[in-house]
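User: New here, any thoughts?
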Amino acid sequence: MKIIKKKLDLRNLRCPETIMLLRKKARNMNLGEYLLVISNDFSSKRDIPKFCRFMQYKLIKIEVKNSVDYHLLKK
């Protein structure tokens, strides 16, 4: 099975815009697809995991490099 990974770059955006754009992108994904969310908003560390729990998506990994957060989630 091929893993389909999409990317959503939310750098330099602030809440609530980050979550609104994440929801819009996730709405158009198929079940089982992966999404890499890139953000540098400090509240995304809290908001993206909460979004995943609420929407029942799996948060695979969170990585921080040079003050940029990379969240890998699966729908």
In short: The radius of gyration is 11 Å. Helices lie at 17-27, 44-55. The chain has a mean pLDDT of 92.
